[in-house]
Amino acid sequence: MTKLLAMLAAAVVAFPASAQVKIGVINSMTGPEAPIGENLTNGIKLAQEDLEKKGVKVQLVWEDDTGKPQISMSAMEKLATRDGVIGVVGPYTSACSNAVAKLAERYKVPLLVPAAAKEEITRQGYKHVFRMNAPADQYAQVLLDAVTALGKPKTIAFLYENTDFGTSTSKAAKDYAAKKGIQVVADEPYSKGSPDYRSTLTKVKSTNPDLVFMVSYVADAILLMRQAREIGLKPQAFLGGGAGFTTVQFSAEKDISGFVFSATQWTDDVPWPGAKDFATRYKAKFGKEPTYHAACAYESLRVMAEAAAKAGGDREKLRAGLVDGKWSGVMGDVDFKDYAGFTNQNDHTMLVQQVLDGKYETVYPQQFATKKPSFPFPGWK
Amino acid sequence: MTVFLQSLISGLLVGGVYALIGIGLTIIFGVMRVINFAHGELVMVGMYITFFAFSLFGIDPFVGIVIVIPLMFLFGAFLQKTFINRVLNALPQNQILLTIGLGLVMSNTVMLLFTSDYRILSTSYSSGSVNLGGISISEPLTISFLITAAITGALYWFLIKTDTGQAIRATAQDRDAAQLMGVNVRRMSVIATGIGAALAGTAGALISPTYYIFPQVGSAFTLKAFVIVVLGGMGSVVGATIGGLIIGVSESLSAAYVSSGLKELFVYVLFLLVLVFKPAGLLGKSRM
Asked: Do residues A142 and A256 share a domain?
C-alpha cells in the first residue's frame, strides 16, 4: 500500500494535475514532402491524445514549412519569439532540420528532431538540438552488416537523389563499404522527379555490381525499381536506404518490390514496449499503416511533453531534463547521449526489413527478426 | 555501345512525349501570343483524368486518351473563353500572371480534392520491355511514342489541309491581317487553346503508366515545355517537335556519360547556346 502511495505521489509530482505545456511543431504539411509529413502529423496527434489521458495537456502550435528550409526558419523564429513555446518538435526533412537547428541554438529553444537523417544536425555541438532517430550513417551500416552476414558481396553501386538526405546517406554508406572491403563500382547522384532513369541504370548495369544501394523518396523508389526491371538489372541484392523503400505503397507493387532490403527506424512487429499497440490504434484512427516517421514523431512529442511538464515552463530546465532523462516506449530505449562526435543524439537501433510476398518483414538484427531473409536476389518474375 | 544506344533510344522515346507538350504550348502561343504558364498543370489534369478513369472504371491509360482529348479540349476552350480572352490585349506581364495564377488554382484545387499523395498507376505492362540485342525497349514508352507520332501527324494534316487549320495558321502569322481577311480570330483562339490543352492532357495520359502523379507534378513540365518551345522557335510546330526530341536525347545522354544529377545543366547550356547563336530558335523566323 505504501508502495502504491509512493508511486502515486511520484506520479503527481511528475505530472501536476493541471500541467499544460506549449510545444511548437514544424512539419511539411503541404508541398512535395507532404505525403510523408502527414505521417508525422498523425503520430503527433495520437501522442497528444495519449498525453492528455496521462494528465499532460499539450497545447500545440502547428507550423507548415512546405518542405522549404527558409520557411521552416521563419516558423522557428515565430515559435521562439512570438508564440513563446517551451520546445519544438520537427521539422521533417534533413535540409529544414539543419537550418532550424542553428536557430534553436541561437534562441536557446530545445528542438527535438524526430526523423531527419542528415548526420550534421547533431554533429555541430549544439546544446539545444536533440534527435530521436538514428542518423544517416546508421542506414548504411545496418544494411551492409545484414548483407555481409548473409553472403560475400564484393562490389556495390550507388544511386541516390542529390539532396541532403541522399548524399549524406550514401556518403556514409561509401565510407562503411570501404571499411568492409566492398569496392564501389558506380556512384550516381540523380535529381529527383525525372521520368527516365534508364540511361543511368544501364550505366550501373554495365558495371555488374553485387549490390545496388539506392536512396530515394516515395515515388522515385517505385520508378527506379520499375526501370531496373525493364533493363534487367540483377545484383545479389537491392538495398534501399530508407524513405521511399519503406512505404506501404512500395511494398504493394509486388512485381518490383520483392526481396528489396531496406533500413528503417521502426517496424510494427518489433518487440519494443507499446509498438504493436501503437500500430493498431494508429490504423484504427487514421485508416493507414503507420510508417517509422509516425512512430518517431509520436515518441518525440511524448518525450518532449513529459520533459516539459517537469520543467514547468523553463526552457533551460527542459534542456537539462532531456539530457538527463531516459525513456522506454514505441521506439525502444530513448537516451540522448554524446558519442562519436554527436551531441544529444539518441543511439537508436536500426532495423533491416525485406519485402517478402508484398509485406515488410523484419529480418535483421536477429533478436528482432520475424522471418528469415531471402538472399541472393532470385531474379525478376 | 550498349549504353549509348540504350540512352539514345530512351531519350528519343521520352523526348516524343516532351514534344507533344511543347507543341501544345507553341500552338497556344502562336495564335494568341500568350505564354501559357499553366501548361504543366494541364498535363497534370490529364494525368488525373487518366488515373481515375483507370482506377475507377478500369479504362486502360492508352485507351483513356479518347476520353482525355475531348475533356481537355473543352477545358482549354473554357479557360480561353472565361479568362485568357480578357487579357489578350493586356500587358505581357499581366498575361503571365494570369496563366501562372490559373496554374496555381489548378494544382491546389487538385490537392484539396485528392490530397498530395503520390499516385502510381500500375498496369500489367508498366515495367514491361522488349530486349533487342542487349538493349531493352520499354513497352509503354514505345506505345506512347507511336501514339505521339500519330497525333503529331494528324495535327500537321489538320493544320495544313483543313480550312480551320489554315485559319489557325493565318491567325498565327498575323492576327490583324487574318481578321481583315474574314477569319474569325476569336474562334481560332478558342480552338487553338483547346487543341493545346488536349495535347498537354494527352501527354499526361501517355506518361502516367510509367511516371507518378501528384498535384505539383506540372511545374517541371511547364519549364521543360517552355525550353522546348524557345529552342525550336516560338510558334513553330516542327520546331517544338525537334526541340522535344533534342531535350529528351540530351538529358538521357548526359545522364549516361556525365551524371544524372547534372543533366539539367547540359540541357540549359544547350539552350543558352541556341539562344546566343540563333536567338529566334532553331526553326524560328525573325522575331515579331
From this structure: yes
* Contact of A132 with A346, CB cutoff 8 Å: yes
* CB-based contact, B264 to chain A, within 8 Å: yes
| A250 neighbors A353 (Cβ within 8 angstroms) | no
A215 and A362 both lie in a single domain: yes
- Cβ-defined contact of B252 to A229 (cutoff 8 Å): no
Domain match, A336 and A276 both: yes
Q: Which helix (H) or strand (E) holds B253?
A: helix B237-257
| Residue B117 touches chain A, beta carbons under 8 Å | yes
Same domain, yes or no, for A144 and A30?
no
Q: Indicate yes or no: CB of B128 within 8 angstroms of CB of A230.
A: yes
Which residues of chain A does B115 touch, with a Cβ-Cβ cutoff of 8 Å?
Answer: 35
Please answer yes or no on whether A226 and B126 come within 8 Å at the CB atom.
yes
Asked if A147 and A257 sit in the same domain, the reply is yes
* A146 and A127, same domain (yes or no): no
β-bridge partners, A355: A360
ipTM score assigned to the predicted complex: 0.78
> How far is the alpha carbon of A219 from chain B, nearest alpha carbon, in Å?
6
- The model's pTM is 0.76
Residue B33, all three cell numbers:
501570343
Instruction: List the domain range (segments joined by +) for residue A175.
Output: 137-264+351-368
Determine whether the interchain pair B216/A32 forms a contact, defined as Cβ–Cβ distance below 8 Å.
yes
A202 belongs to a structural domain: yes
Contact A198 B7 (CB under 8 A): yes
B156 in helix, strand or coil? helix
Asked whether the bond before A195 is cis by omega within 30 degrees of 0, the reply is no
- The per-residue pLDDT string of chain A (381 residues; one tens digit each, 9 = 90 and over) reads 555 555 555 544 444 445 689 999 999 998 778 878 999 999 999 999 999 999 999 999 999 999 899 999 999 999 999 999 999 999 999 999 999 999 999 999 999 999 998 889 999 999 999 999 999 888 889 999 999 999 999 999 999 988 877 888 888 899 999 999 999 999 999 887 777 888 889 889 999 999 999 998 777 888 899 899 988 899 999 999 867 888 888 888 888 898 999 988 999 888 899 999 999 999 999 998 898 999 999 999 999 999 999 998 899 999 999 999 999 999 999 999 999 899 999 999 999 999 998 888 999 898 888 889 998 898 887
Q: Are strands A327-329 and B135-138 parallel, antiparallel or unpaired?
A: unpaired
**Residue B54 in grid coordinates:** 483507370
Chain A residue with CA closest to B224: the answer is A194
Grid coordinates representing A142 are 545496418
A177 Cβ contact partners less than 8 Å away, ≥ 6 residues apart: A140, A144, A156, A183, A184
SS3 B82: helix
Burial of A334 by CB count in 10 Å (0-12 exposed, 13-18 middle, 19+ buried)? buried
Q: Does A247 share its domain with A123?
A: no
